[in-house]
Amino acid sequence: MAANGRRNLVFIDGILNKYKYLNILKENLKQSAIKLNLLDDFYFQQDNDSKHTAGIVRKWIVYSTPHTLQTPRRPKSVCLHSMLCKSCMCGQIFL
Length: 95
Prior knowledge:
Number of helices: 2
Distance between the termini: 27 Å
CATH class: Alpha Beta
Number of domains: 1
Radius of gyration: 16 Å
């Protein structure tokens, strides 16, 4: 989504893997940037999901997007469940 609107909504049938994700990027990212008048002046950012960090996806992004914002790696000490709620089973409390 961008400040001046949304573009290219994609419906996914089945489980999304790195190959489907890459095809979605190839078919939609540049077209959406053109529709938003951002072709050479946008920053692409995604989280560290395994399909986002797959080698084929990272390589395509490096050569196909003008700018990329890197998402910092999550520290190993952070409880995964804590990202979903304030209190997790391991006893840590997050605000």
